[in-house]
Design a protein that fits this description.
By secondary structure, the chain is mostly helical. It has one domain: Hypothetical protein af1432 (Orthogonal Bundle). It is elongated and about 80 Å long. It binds adenosine-5'-diphosphate and nickel (II) ion (NI). Adenosine-5'-diphosphate (ADP) binds next to helix 7 and helix 9.
Length: 231
């Protein structure tokens, strides 16, 4: 146990240093929230290996495939290099790398089932942080970082995207709610995450209602103004 604690501390320092300047919503604080979400879910999943869950949660965004030409091996490679320096069992390292490789959302049409309970927990913990108030903030941060518009009425969301489509989508940030975020509630693996997802989902729906209400009001007011001018 003592050994586990010190390796967790070293991993925190490693991830913190690496993700410090990250501004696309995959910063250290995201990793920390995912780690804490995962620890919470673990309380209800007593068979899970806590060392594997914690390492995978902390390391999961250490080098994202989206920022490495779609290469899903970069993250696991960086994690493996780090973990092998700290005398962790090969079986744990392999498992952490497998989770990192398979947990990412790759489009509505692409099922990404996790093989183990540890993977299910970390995937849920990450997806919870994509939802709710924090999820909304991260979506627009990511959108700005990748030069996306906030909203564009001429571009519809892509439903049922394939992996290739999803990877290349350059649609406005608001579309991401329909392409991914509103789908997450029904994709949760664990009961604990399903429970937490309900409130976050409801808040996103409320947010979107308000967003489109403001757009519509602006439109209606504008058309009234132009009618008054022409009358
Ligand atoms: P995952 O771990 O499932 O791969 P991502 O790293 O793809 O998650 O996404 C993390 C967060 O980044 C999303 O929940 C969202 O907030 C933001 N994001 C990702 N893709 C987009 C996009 N196309 N438009 C806006 N935000 C996005
Ligand atoms: Ni993440």
């Amino acid at each position: 146990m003592h050994h586990d604690e010190s390796i967790i501390q070293k991993t925190i320092t490693f991830v913190h240093n690496r993700l410090q300047k990250e501004s696309s919503g995959h910063d250290w604080w995201h990793a920390e929230r995912v780690w804490k979400n995962a620890l919470y879910i673990c309380r209800f999943e007593p068979t899970a290996n806590m060392l594997t869950v914690q390492l995978a949660a902390l390391l999961h965004d250490i080098a994202d495939w989206k920022f490495h030409d779609g290469d899903i091996e970069v993250g696991p490679k960086v994690a493996r290099e780090f973990l092998t320096q700290h005398s962790i069992d090969d079986s744990v390292i392999d498992h952490v790398c497998e989770i990192m490789r398979t947990m990412s959302f790759k489009g509505e049409g692409v099922p990404a089932p996790m093989r183990t309970i540890e993977g299910k927990i970390v995937q849920d913990a990450d997806r919870l942080d994509a939802m709710g108030a924090i999820g909304i903030a991260r979506t627009f941060a990511f959108g700005g970082y990748t030069n996306r518009e906030i909203y564009n009425p001429t571009i519809a969301p892509i439903k049922n995207a394939t992996a290739e489509q999803y990877k290349n989508i350059k649609t406005p940030s608001i579309n991401h709610f329909y392409e991914k975020l509103l789908l997450l509630k029904n994709l949760m693996n664990t009961q604990a995450a399903k429970r937490l997802a309900e409130e976050r989902h409801a808040f996103m729906e409320l947010y979107l209602q308000m967003f489109f209400k403001e757009i519509n009001v602006a439109q209606e007011n504008a058309s009234q103004t132009s009618q008054n001018i022409s009358a």
